[in-house]
Design goal:
heterotrimer; A alpha/beta (about 400); B alpha/beta (about 325); C alpha+beta (about 100); A: about 400 residues; alpha/beta; Rossmann fold; 6-stranded mixed sheet; C: alpha+beta; two-stranded antiparallel ribbon; elongated
Chain lengths: ~400, ~325, ~100
């Protein structure tokens, strides 16, 4: 067991990346991820981290350089948010199709326009189809643990991993964090050995044309790989529990055992929601909370199991999917449920856009509205909560 | 100035050691295999073959989206005998930067043999370099990665059907700058990419033409010997897009040099060297008449082109005098 | 039928759809593209190697006597070799039907 230190989460993440002995860091600064890349630059320039730090000229170049470096067999890292993520968009699909074990931390921030630097999930929700493994951290300890986990999973599954932390509300706060002892990191994240890489001794061609006679097969192969990574992800968490005692699951539950109404929320707002659950439980209400720790591949079985016998679910989205049937998480939840026999009522709120405060009172309101939804169908398939009329 | 002098000295020593290729002792190595799908007489794939011959088997190539990538890798076939990667249209320079950084750090950590010199070469088209990839090229050059960027300039987006790019010469007909009744062809002058590249203060930059294959190979080799980015701007004739006969493609590359349209020069550590003085240029009409893309040019356009080509050439000669090598 | 349109099974693809056999385009015949075929007059040839250097399709190979011979399996008949031969030793001849 290591010692607990109080560290700003961004700095802690950079330290964890350094512990994983990353080879190439290629990143472009964007609020609110700047502290991560700044600290990594410091570590490299002080000689504390032996890595190549590439101060690239745009996020697109950052992901391109990561692809080049990972294709050569180096352990890579990058980080971005909002507009940066959207700028590197075409490379996200290429990175996952090439099966490259890149690790990226996204400091979730809302997407322009209007330009804003504050936190919501609209950036990561644009990459649902990209083929990346995506996980969400709720507090500083989880963020650091998910970094170790990301490298282990990325290199075993040969798929890129995006670890999501809430910009500012998580990236810039100081939290108590217990780092893994370096010897354990070296054991949990062994040296990267890639079978297929750019090597003059064994020339291969990466990025050939996908003619119609092969594209379908290529996509199926990639899809099966992402589905198969679920086993690797869950086993990696089991291994981690053995090392640290900290348990992680694809769908985290809070007081769901006998819940009749539940909320679904992702990211650091979950801790606020837990306060609401506790308050309502004191009053005798059987409420619970669900969080997707693993977002892609979507843990359908864990989710269906976790909801138990709830009569209604309130999905709290933190991004808008304009003109669709719900917020991004709402859409996925409804789709997953439709494939099971369970039919709880669903009500979908979009809240906390661009750093708008979501308080315990708001969560209590969400629970009350979800209770109402048991008997009365919500008027709209999704509701942007809290907009001043 | 001390740092520049030190870099100059180190480079001069390396470059002095290289005696140059000649037809009788060409390396036998081929980095490209036959069976690729380039058009007959393609003047763009020829520089690729020559460059890889000059660089040898310890080379990793990065291609941009474009003709060279399409003709060489129709799944399941590949013409590349060396490791090769294609990511997207504009970012080959960044991908190459990532590869270079990875090799550097893996060598330092002992995961790759330090003795093995691995060349990293980018094959990018003019569209990918002059237009959409300019930012990526600039970033890679500024960061000073040790790689070679070869811009295969066929003066339009040939792969997608001959649309204009910033490299399309004034007056040329392309599908998006057509020779119409009112506006006749490309209205802007070709972008001065060498000027932009030289402004980055890189150790080696040069222009080359496949009509002078030994010169091209020498330049690629020199670019690989310097420590830092090397840039080669190759005029690559495209019989399909330029509207010339397949057998004339290399001839047009020769005439482009001999009419002063595409002078051959090097910029080694900021010093300009004119490789071929063209005191008596061939008439520009000889170059135009081989290509359908110029057949609509009016006498006024030809006059303007003549004057401007001569002006640019004189400018280059002056640069060689002012910033040339001490004799 | 849609089921049989794929070239290979998705299970047989290398991860990332990488092509693991370098230079396997040698299996692809481009020689049937041509309309004209290069014919070498060995009397005129001085074995300078310009045809070998300038061929975009990497067709030329040196034979045991030092002459450069085009490989007609790949030759597309572009005519660059004939055009640039300093001794005019190569002629482009129309392929028979």
């Amino acid at each position: 067991m290591g010692e607990k230190v109080a560290k700003e989460v961004s700095i802690a993440i950079a330290d964890a990346v350094a512990q994983c002995k990353v080879d190439v860091i290629s990143a472009y600064p964007i609020t609110p991820q700047t502290h991560i890349v700044e600290h990594l630059a410091e570590l490299v320039n002080n000689g504390e981290l032996d890595a190549e730090y590439m101060p690239v000229e745009s996020e697109h170049a950052a992901m391109s350089a990561c692809i080049g470096a990972a294709a050569t067999g180096a352990r890579t890292f990058t980080s971005t948010a909002a507009q940066g993520l959207l700028l590197m968009y075409e490379n996200l699909f290429i990175a996952s199709a090439f099966r490259l074990p890149i690790v990226m931390v996204i400091a979730n921030r809302s997407v322009s326009a209007p330009i804003s630097i504050w936190n919501d999930h609209s950036d990561v929700m644009t990459m649902r189809d990209s083929g990346w493994i995506q996980t969400f951290a709720e507090n500083g300890q989880e963020a650091v643990d998910l970094i170790y986990h990301a490298y282990r999973v990325a290199e075993k599954a040969l798929l890129p991993v995006a670890v999501n932390i809430d910009g500012f509300t998580l990236s810039h706060v100081i939290e108590p964090i217990e780092f893994l002892d370096q010897k354990l990191v070296d054991k949990y994240v062994p040296p990267l050995r890639m079978k297929y890489k750019l090597d003059p001794k064994k020339p291969i061609t990466m990025g050939a044309i996908g003619i119609p006679e092969i594209y379908t097969e290529a996509k199926k192969a990639q899809d099966e790989a992402l589905k198969a990574s679920y086993r690797i992800i869950v086993n990696a968490w089991k291994e981690f529990e053995k090392l640290t005692g900290r348990k992680y699951q694809p769908v985290e539950t809070y007081k769901m055992e006998d819940a009749e109404v539940a909320l679904i929320i992702m990211g650091s707002l979950a801790e606020t929601a837990m306060n609401a659950v506790d308050l309502l439980r004191k009053k005798g209400k059987r409420v619970g909370l669900l969080r997707f720790r693993l977002w892609r591949p979507f843990p359908m079985r864990d989710f269906i199991r976790a909801i138990g016998k709830v009569k209604a679910i309130g999905v709290i989205d933190r991004a808008v999917s304009h003109g669709s049937t719900g917020g991004p998480v709402g859409i996925e939840v409804r789709s997953a449920l439709y494939q099971s026999n369970k039919r709880p009522k669903i009500i979908n709120f979009i809240a906390g856009l661009s750093g708008r405060d979501v308080t315990v009172e708001d969560f209590i309101e969400f629970f009350e509205r979800t209770y109402e939804a048991i008997s009365k169908k919500p008027k709209f398939s999704y509701e942007i909560y809290g907009a001043k009329e | 100035m001390k740092f520049m002098e030190q870099r100059s000295k180190a480079m001069k020593a390396e470059l002095k050691k290289f005696k140059g290729f000649n037809l009788k002792n060409l390396p036998e190595f081929e980095g490209l295999a036959p069976g690729h799908r380039a058009c007959q007489g393609c003047g763009t794939v020829l520089p690729v073959k020559l460059a890889l011959k000059a660089l040898g088997p310890n080379t990793i190539a990065v291609s941009t989206t474009g003709c060279m990538e399409i003709i060489s890798t129709p799944f399941p076939y590949t013409s590349w005998k060396i490791p090769w990667i294609h990511v997207a249209f504009e970012n080959a320079a960044s991908v190459a930067s990532g590869i270079e950084a990875a090799i550097k750090v893996l060598k330092r950590k002992g995961k790759i043999s330090k003795k093995q010199k691995i060349n990293i070469v980018v094959f990018a088209g003019d569209g990918a370099t002059f237009d959409i990839g300019l930012q990526f090229l600039s970033g890679a050059l500024e960061r000073g990665h040790d790689f070679i960027y070869i811009c295969l300039d066929n003066e339009a987006y040939m792969n997608t059907g001959v649309q204009r790019s910033a490299a399309t010469p004034y007056g040329a007909h392309t599908t998006t700058s057509p020779a119409g009744k009112v506006i006749k062809g490309q209205v802007t002058w070709k972008k001065n990419l060498m000027g932009i590249v030289v402004a980055h203060n890189i150790p080696y930059a040069a222009t080359a033409s496949p009509a002078f294959p030994i010169d091209l190979m020498n330049k690629v080799k020199k670019a690989s010997l310097v420590n830092g980015p090397g840039f080669i701007h190759v005029l690559s004739p495209c019989p399909t897009g330029w509207g010339c006969k397949s057998e004339d493609s290399i001839l047009t590359a020769k005439l482009a040099v001999e009419t002063r349209i595409f002078p051959l020069y090097e910029v080694i550590d900021g010093k300009y060297i004119l490789n071929r003085k063209i005191d008596k240029p061939k008439p520009i009409e000889e170059y135009f008449k081989l290509q359908r893309r110029f057949r609509h040019l009016t006498p006024e356009q030809i006059e303007y082109i003549k004057k401007r080509v001569d002006e640019e050439y004189e400018k280059l000669v002056k640069l060689c005098e002012c910033f040339g090598v001490e004799s | 039928m849609p089921k049989d349109q794929g070239l290979v099974s998705w299970k047989e693809l290398a991860p990332g759809m990488f092509i693991l056999e370098p230079g396997n385009s040698v299996k692809f015949k481009t020689g049937d593209w041509r309309a004209y075929r290069p014919v070498l007059d060995k009397e005129k040839c001085i074995k300078c190697g310009i045809c070998y250097t300038l061929c975009p399709d990497l067709c030329y190979k040196k034979d045991k006597d030092g002459y450069f011979i085009p490989d007609l399996y790949y030759c597309k008949g572009c005519g660059v070799c004939a055009k640039h031969c300093p001794k005019g030793a190569i002629t482009m001849v129309l392929e028979e039907a």
